[in-house]
C-alpha cells in the first residue's frame, strides 16, 4: 500500500485498511508480505500512480468520498505480486513510520 504522509494517523490507518481490502483477491498464500509506504501528498501519490500505470503495475486507487477530502486521492492498493516485480518501482518511497 502507498498512503499519503500528510494525513493524520487515524485517516492513514483507515485508508490503508481500505486499500488492502480493495486490492487483495483474498485467500493469499502463506508468506505473503504487506508493506505500507508513503507518498508526500496527493500530487506525489498521483505521480506515483502514473508511473505505476506506465510500468504495467496493477493497483487500486482509493479516493475519499466524504468531507473534508471530497474525492481526494488518499492511497494506492497495489495488487499482490512477487516483490521483485514491484520493488523496483517503489524502492525510493519511505516506509510508514
Q: What would you say this structure looks like, in words?
A:
With 97 residues, the chain is an alpha+beta fold. The protein has one domain. It is 38% helix and 20% strand. The protein contains three helices and four strands. It has helices spanning 9-23, 42-55, 83-90; strands spanning 2-4, 37-39, 59-64, 72-78. A four-stranded mixed sheet has the order 2-1-4-3, with helices on both faces. A hairpin with a 7-residue loop joins strand 3 and strand 4. The longest helix is centred in the N-terminal third of the chain and has 15 residues, at 9-23. The radius of gyration is 13 Å and the shape is globular. The chain starts with a strand and ends in a 7-residue tail after the last helix. The mean pLDDT is 95.
Give a concise summary.
The chain is of the alpha+beta class and 97 residues long. The protein has one domain.
Shape: globular
- Total count of strands: 4
Strand/helix succession: EHEHEEH
Distinct helical segment count: 3
What's the alpha carbon Rg, rounded to whole Å? 13 Å
Distance between the termini: 13 Å
**Overall tally of structural domains:** 1
**Residue share in helix:** 25-40%
Low-pLDDT windows of residues: none
Query: Roughly what fraction of the amino acids lie in strands?
Result: 15-25%
- Coarse structural class: alpha+beta
User: How are the strands of the biggest sheet laid out side by side?
Assistant: 2-1-4-3
Largest sheet: 4 strands, mixed
The average pLDDT is 95
